[in-house]
Design a protein that fits this description.
This protein is of the alpha+beta class and 757 residues long. The chain has a domain of 301 residues. It contains 23 helices and 25 strands. It has a 3-stranded antiparallel β-sheet. It has a two-stranded antiparallel ribbon with strand order 1-12. A two-stranded antiparallel sheet has the order 2-4. Helix 4 packs across helix 6 and helix 5 runs antiparallel to helix 17. The relative contact order is 0.13. The mean pLDDT is 83. Keywords: Membrane, Signal, Transmembrane, Transmembrane helix.
């Protein structure tokens, strides 16, 4: 009976122990020394969530692993932008006002501008690329190859957008200030009219196709090629398709296409002089642009469209993960994983447990069987029977009972010690929901890690930034209807004194409109760029950390965005003023009256002054006029003005055709007396409205799993298994101790002490 019971219990116990040890998992940590790139890639694929490879070199320049080469439009690499070609055209230019509309009169200026655009584009790219490649890339540990390529591509795209935006902003500011200041240029946008009686010289704006240069800078018309006749006149030979002349050569060029340069006949016609007898008929040895590989849309693409991409057709880039890995040079990689126990470990553990189980089950089975038999045969009450168990009639029974008590106490002590001893545990939860993640982040904020399925996604997927601009930028005072209303049918130029604000009102409001438009474009482009920037993180971050990261990003964005705009505007102001460029408004320099009775009258100019401030000394002279400012240049007068007049109906428009701004309707962080220059330095922005959604961020991250670790007590089954493994040895040790203790005890009791009388 006892043997059968013993065998059954032993087999069941061994099966349970084996199953528990085989099916249970434990956390392993390993280290790989001096891993190669192939070893790292293998480890990254196998242990993507736990692999850590610290870099020995924490920072390296972008040029270590990035190479970028722009491919420019072929015109920028052709002879059409060479100094030899431009000088050849300049030498053949027949400089008579009659032929100002002739392509060959303008061609020298147009190609010089085209050369400047190509040169500036290349210089901008080279300077920006050099700084970008010298920028340090900080990496404390090896970044996974997929994340690395995504992150670097995002950096390159951001750099390209920034470079193009800065280049475009500079050109647009030049165009806007030229228009608002009405800078005079080689009789393209003005004529001179002399009063035959007084000799007064007046500046009269030019017109192109019923479009006045006093109002618009984009006035233009297709440039013809003229042919000399036998008489004193020339006739129009033909018009070059999509090549324009206008108020400003730059504006005309940007509206033009290069279609003529793909046709050798058209290129040759450019070189033929109006009066051939005055020139050597030898043509410049220059070939038309290569039409091979050019689509029909590329041939008719405007120069402005080419400039919008820095005259670049494509970018060649190479990102080398191998170079990055070699520069990082990790000396070791650590990783951890959970796996089932090895078969050898299970076998050895079962063997170690077997001896303890055998001994323990023998005793337990015998005691149980004897107890049952005696309970069945004995007429004693159960309580009395239990008392008799502890009555010892000989040393053997005493040793057995003492050994049993000692063994139980030892096992209890070991169990308690093992139970209270802390143990590191790691738990993995696949595809957690947001509610589960929030619960886990509350319970295990320090150890919780969730790996994102999407390591890279756009800011715009979870973040929106909406700038609110000053109300003047959305008011009628920046509209064409208001500017035309102020212009009053081309009567400004001769009617008002230079110290009267109304003399330059058209230009000032054009400038205000342009500054609003360019400020809004700069901000909106920067917001769009930030929105399309990749938010890269391999691990899901908590809501408070996401808020902090976004706030830091927005703060940097607010500081960075106005920098280029303000520096370029200041540069243009300095260049315009230092070169003393003359305005069509005649507000900084004015033509002196001429004596038309002289045989060769000479035109002289003299600087004007504002409150004893001489425009010949400084371009920033201004003085108050009708609630605004008048000055040497409309731009300087506008920037030193305030918007106070815009809130006063009698000041801004006493006819009440256009309503003044309402100071109480829309709140503003700018004081009414703030200068327009101060508001422009803030890019006309009142505030940024930021809306972020952690739920959308969580959905974009889409964590594949979350792992957390904690320190807790050991598992009861593990403790029991360990104690069973120790049981066999404890039985032997306890037996020795009890036998030795009883012998010592008996020997002392038997010792006879002599009595001394």
């Amino acid at each position: 009976m006892a043997t059968r019971l013993y065998i059954v219990i032993l087999i069941v116990s061994l099966l349970i122990t084996t199953l528990y040890l085989s099916l249970g998992e434990e956390l392993h940590r390993e280290t790989a020394l001096n891993p190669s790139e192939s070893q790292y890639n293998h480890l990254q694929q196998t242990y993507p969530n736990s692999l850590i490879c610290p870099c020995t070199s924490l920072s390296m320049s972008h040029q270590t692993f990035i190479s970028i080469e722009p491919v420019y439009h072929q015109v920028c690499l052709s002879d059409f932008v060479s100094s030899a070609w431009i000088d050849f055209l300049a030498a053949r230019q027949y400089n008579l006002f009659l032929f100002i509309y002739d392509k060959r009169y303008n061609v020298n200026t147009q190609f010089r501008l085209l050369s400047t655009l190509c040169e500036n584009a290349q210089q901008t790219v080279n300077d920006s690329l050099r700084l970008f490649l010298q920028t340090q890339f900080v990496s404390s540990q090896v970044i996974a190859q997929e994340i690395f390529h995504s992150q670097i591509n995002s950096l390159i795209e951001d750099w390209q957008v920034n470079t193009i935006s800065r280049f475009q902003l500079g050109i647009q500011l030049v165009r806007a200030t030229n228009q608002g200041n009405k800078i005079m240029n080689d009789f393209y946008n003005f004529n001179l009219q002399v009063d035959p009686t007084s000799g007064q010289v007046n500046v009269i704006p030019m017109n192109y196709s019923n479009c006045s240069c006093a109002l618009y800078d984009v006035c233009s018309e297709v440039m013809p090629i003229f042919q000399n006749t036998e008489g004193p006149f020339v006739i129009e030979r033909y018009r070059i398709r999509d090549f324009f002349t206008g108020c400003f050569p730059l504006e005309a060029l940007l509206q033009s296409t290069l279609e003529c340069l793909y046709n050798q006949t058209c290129v040759d016609d450019i070189q033929i002089p109006v009066i051939p007898l005055l020139y050597n008929d030898t043509l410049f040895n220059i070939s038309a642009l290569n039409i091979t590989g050019q689509g029909p849309n590329e041939m008719i693409e405007t120069v402005e469209s080419m400039v919008s991409r820095l005259m670049i057709n494509s970018w060649l880039r190479n990102i080398s993960f191998t170079s990055y890995y070699n520069a990082c040079a990790p000396t070791l990689c650590t990783f951890q994983y959970e796996s089932r126990r090895q078969t050898l470990f299970v076998v050895l553990t079962v063997i170690s447990v077997l001896s303890g189980l055998t001994t323990g089950l023998k005793i337990l089975t015998l005691i149980s069987v004897r107890f049952a038999e005696k309970m069945a045969d004995s007429r004693l009450a159960p309580i009395q029977f239990v008392k008799n168990v502890f009555v010892c009639h000989n040393d053997q029974k005493l040793a057995n009972r003492l050994q049993f008590v000692l063994l139980v106490i030892t096992l209890c002590v070991l169990y308690v010690v093992s139970f209270v001893q802390p143990q590191f545990r790691s738990v993995e939860i696949p595809k957690p929901s947001l509610s589960i993640y929030r619960d886990l982040s509350t319970q295990f904020p320090d150890s919780l890690q969730c790996s994102c399925s999407n390591i890279s996604f756009k800011y715009q997927t979870f973040l929106t930034i909406q700038p609110r601009f000053h109300q003047v930028c959305s008011s009628e005072f920046t509209s064409n209807s208001w500017i035309e209303y102020v212009y009053e049918n081309d009567n400004l130029f001769p009617r008002f004194n230079h110290t009267d604000f109304r003399a330059t009102a058209t230009g000032q409001f054009q400038l205000l409109s342009s500054l609003c438009r360019l400020s809004q474009k700069t901000v909106n482009d920067s917001v769009s760029q930030l929105a399309s920037t990749d938010f890269i993180n391999a691990q899901l971050i908590a809501s408070n950390l996401l808020d902090s990261r976004i706030q830091t990003t927005i703060s940097e964005f607010q500081l960075r965005t106005p920098t280029s705009f303000i520096s370029m505007l200041d540069l243009i102001r300095d260049v315009t003023g230092t070169n003393m460029l003359m305005s069509m408004y005649s507000t900084n320099w004015k033509y002196s009256d001429v004596n038309i009775n002289k045989e060769n009258p000479v035109l002289n100019i003299a600087p004007l002054d504002y409150q004893e401030c001489d425009c010949g000394m400084t371009p920033k002279c201004t003085q108050p006029s009708r609630g605004m400012m008048a000055g040497c240049y409309p731009l300087e007068a506008l920037l030193q003005s305030t918007l106070q007049c815009f809130y006063d109906q009698q000041c801004i428009d006493s006819n009440e055709t256009f309503k003044s701004l309402n100071s109480s309707f829309v709140s503003s962080r700018f004081d009414v007396n703030s200068s327009i220059e101060f508001i422009v330095q803030q890019l006309m922005v009142e505030e940024y409205l930021v809306n972020k959604s952690y739920e959308k961020y969580f959905d974009q991250c889409s964590p594949s799993s979350c792992t957390y670790s904690y320190t807790g007590s050991q598992d009861e089954i593990d403790i029991a298994t360990s104690l069973i493994g120790l049981y066999g040895g404890l039985v032997v040790i306890s037996q020795w101790i009890t036998v030795l203790s009883i012998k010592v005890y008996r020997s002392r009791r038997r010792r006879i002490y002599p009595q001394i009388q």
